[in-house]
Structures are given as structure tokens and as C-alpha cells.
């Protein structure tokens, strides 16, 4: 039997699966959840670790090599290291990463590394305690900073920091984040604020194109150059200050989409395949878990609907001429 590869109608071969293990989170970040919070899925609607591992096993045979665990906040799931170990044991999987807010990470970093976790992305949108608390609606930035140290001690490398850049909210900290890369092997990723589930006035007010990052470097007369050697850099456009140990990168899905090289699929915590983050299309795979051929066919069906690009730049311009229906699910419900 010849097992098909995960190739979409535009010839893009997919080898990367982002798995949301929960829609719950201990924080309420302003760009991810509304202030009133979310109505979370009942526990019995969430995929079990065994179900997730079964899906990964099947699609690893179709070419998936890289897995990223996300949420919500993935570390609100108990014993996440068990899932990491299950995925690490699947033939073909070469890389397992985690995206986390870092609040619960410090005491678990070594366990996750031992289970097979390769590396981490830690969300950190401000280095100022009160501002961090405001953006996250209650978070303690020191716990995140402790987690960065714990990951370095555990040997989780590279350590990447995800900074959602927001106009008038944290853009005055660009230089502070870049300075972190001088002495430590830390890789800061500035990310444009995306209108996922809420193309509204707040998003348009806070959106800031990442050209501002280079402007800050030039204002300080910092010398920097392009680099391309950061493991798992994906769509990031990477740079390094002269003599720095780490790097900084720009991920601009709105102003300069990278859809032409997209190689990722998403599996939501409640069991849906999403071929594109921005649009409403999704396919419930949980009902066919246990039937390998049905899982394969559902992933191929989902890929068949994947558009050429997400058209988010049109949201910024107020252009109503879009080819698909934007998702109404928030980022925490889909997986960051």
C-alpha cells in the first residue's frame, strides 16, 4: 500500500502539525481572549493523549516530522510530559516543540526535556512587571523569567521568546528585548498582532507593522545582519546584532504573508483539523480515530480546501473582497 503525502492543491507539502492540547489558560491576554473570558469546552470534548498520539502516528506516515504543542496554555494539562514521550516514540517524528506562557514551566522544564521535548517558545510581551500584568490580566513576569533560566539549565535549545508587538502598548520595549540577545543564546521573535476571531477596532488600533523594529535598531545605530541558522525558524526573518549570542526575528503574517511556503496543519483541542488559521474551514477527526485510512482521508480532504493565502492584509485595509469566511474562533480556541 502506498501512503499518500500531505500535499495541498498548490503543491505545498506539509510536514508540521501544531496540536492544541487544551483551550483553557491561566492568563487572559488582551490579544487572545476577550476581557470577559471564554466559555471553555467540557473536559470530555477534549482529545485524550491517546487520541492525539494515534492521529500523530497515522500522519507521521504521511510525512509529518515536526510537532508543536500549544493551547490555550498547554501546561494546564496534567502530566504533559506523558504526551511528549508518546509522540517522541512515534517513528518519523524528529522535533517536538512547546509554545507556553511560561508561568508553570520552570518546575517542569527538566521533566519535559527528559520526555523528549526538543525546544520551547515562551510568550513574553513585556519585561515590565505592571505592564505584563496588565497585558496578561494577572500574570507574574518573574515566573516567566525563571522559566527561561530553567529551560537553559535543562538544555532546551533554542529558547525563543514570542513578543506580540502592539502599537502604544509595548512598542517602547523593542530595544530592551533585543538587548536580551547580546549576552544570552535567546532568540526574540516579534510577531504582528493578528485579527484571529476579532477583526475589530481594537485590533486596528493596536496593529503595528514590524518595520518599526528595524527603525529602532537604526535609531540606536546598532549594526545587525541577517542570519538563517536558527533551528525551527519557520517564517521568521532573522537578524543578529554584531557580536550577539542570540538573535531577533520578525514574523509578519499580516503585512507580508508567508503563505506560499506554509507547511503546517493544526489539530484543535476538541478534535478538528484546521488547514488554515484564518478561515472557518475545519474537519472533525475525532469521530474517525481508530480507523487509520479514515484519518488519512480526512487530512487529505482538509488539505484540499486550503486556500492559497489567508488574505489578512485585506482586513487591515477594510477590503471586503475575501475568498473565504474568517474564523470566529479565538486564538486560544484554535491553538497559538
Automatic annotation (TrEMBL):
Binds 2 [4Fe-4S] clusters. Binds 1 [4Fe-4S] cluster coordinated with 3 cysteines and an exchangeable S-adenosyl-L-methionine and 1 [4Fe-4S] cluster coordinated with 3 cysteines and the GTP-derived substrate. Its EC number is 4.1.99.22. S-adenosyl-L-methionine binds at residues 31, 72, 123, 194. InterPro entries: Aldolase_TIM, Elp3/MiaA/NifB-like_rSAM, MoaA, MoaA-like, MoaA_NifB_PqqE_Fe-S-bd_CS, MoaA_twitch, MoCo_biosynth_MoaA/MoaC, rSAM. Keywords: 4Fe-4S, GTP-binding, Iron, Iron-sulfur, Lyase, Metal-binding, Molybdenum cofactor biosynthesis, Nucleotide-binding, S-adenosyl-L-methionine. It catalyses: GTP + AH2 + S-adenosyl-L-methionine = (8S)-3',8-cyclo-7,8-dihydroguanosine 5'-triphosphate + 5'-deoxyadenosine + L-methionine + A + H(+). GTP binds at residues 18, 68, 99, 160, 264-266. One of its GO terms (biological process) is Mo-molybdopterin cofactor biosynthetic process. Residues 9-223 form the Radical SAM core domain. [4Fe-4S] cluster 1 binds at residues 25, 29, 32. One of its GO terms (molecular function) is 4 iron, 4 sulfur cluster binding. Residues 324-336 have a biased composition (Polar residues). Its cofactor is [4Fe-4S] cluster. [4Fe-4S] cluster 2 binds at residues 259, 262, 276. Residues 317-336 are annotated as: Disordered. Pathway: Cofactor biosynthesis; molybdopterin biosynthesis. Catalyzes the cyclization of GTP to (8S)-3',8-cyclo-7,8-dihydroguanosine 5'-triphosphate. Monomer and homodimer. Belongs to the radical SAM superfamily. MoaA family. HAMAP family: MoaA_B (MF_01225_B). This is GTP 3',8-cyclase. It comes from Paenibacillus apis. The gene is moaA.
Amino acid at each position: 500500500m502506498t501512503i499518500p503525502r500531505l500535499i495541498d492543491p498548490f503543491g505545498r507539502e506539509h510536514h508540521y502539525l501544531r496540536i492544541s492540547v487544551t483551550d483553557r489558560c491561566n492568563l487572559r491576554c488582551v490579544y487572545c481572549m476577550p476581557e470577559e473570558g471564554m466559555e471553555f469546552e467540557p473536559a470530555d470534548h477534549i482529545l485524550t493523549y491517546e487520541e492525539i498520539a494515534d492521529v500523530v502516528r497515522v500522519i507521521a506516515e504521511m510525512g509529518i516530522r515536526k510537532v508543536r504543542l500549544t493551547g490555550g496554555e498547554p501546561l494546564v494539562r496534567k502530566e504533559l510530559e506523558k504526551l511528549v514521550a508518546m509522540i517522541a516514540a512515534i517513528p518519523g517524528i524528529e522535533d517536538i516543540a512547546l509554545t507556553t506562557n511560561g508561568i508553570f514551566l520552570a518546575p517542569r522544564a527538566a521533566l519535559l526535556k527528559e520526555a523528549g521535548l526538543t525546544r520551547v517558545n515562551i510568550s513574553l510581551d513585556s519585561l515590565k512587571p505592571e505592564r505584563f500584568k496588565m497585558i496578561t490580566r494577572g500574570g507574574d513576569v518573574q515566573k516567566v523569567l525563571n522559566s527561561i533560566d530553567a529551560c537553559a539549565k535543562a538544555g532546551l535549545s533554542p529558547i525563543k521568546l514570542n513578543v506580540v508587538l502592539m502599537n502604544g502598548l509595548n512598542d517602547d520595549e523593542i530595544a530592551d528585548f533585543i538587548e536580551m540577545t547580546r549576552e544570552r543564546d535567546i532568540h526574540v521573535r516579534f510577531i504582528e498582532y493578528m485579527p484571529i476571531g476579532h477583526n475589530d477596532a481594537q485590533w486596528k488600533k493596536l496593529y503595528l507593522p514590524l518595520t518599526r523594529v528595524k527603525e529602532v535598531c537604526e535609531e540606536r545605530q546598532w549594526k545587525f545582519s541577517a542570519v538563517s541558522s536558527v533551528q525551527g525558524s519557520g517564517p521568521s526573518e532573522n537578524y543578529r546584532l554584531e557580536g550577539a549570542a542570540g538573535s531577533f526575528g520578525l514574523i509578519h503574517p499580516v503585512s507580508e504573508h508567508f503563505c506560499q511556503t506554509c507547511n503546517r496543519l493544526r489539530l484543535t483541542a476538541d478534535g478538528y483539523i484546521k488547514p488554515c488559521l484564518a478561515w472557518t474551514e475545519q474537519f472533525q477527526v475525532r469521530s474517525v480515530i481508530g480507523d487509520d485510512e479514515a484519518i488519512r482521508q480526512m487530512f487529505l480532504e482538509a488539505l484540499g480546501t486550503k486556500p492559497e493565502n489567508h488574505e489578512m492584509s485585506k482586513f487591515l485595509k477594510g477590503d471586503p473582497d475575501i475568498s473565504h469566511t474568517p474564523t470566529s474562533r479565538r486564538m486560544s480556541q484554535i491553538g497559538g
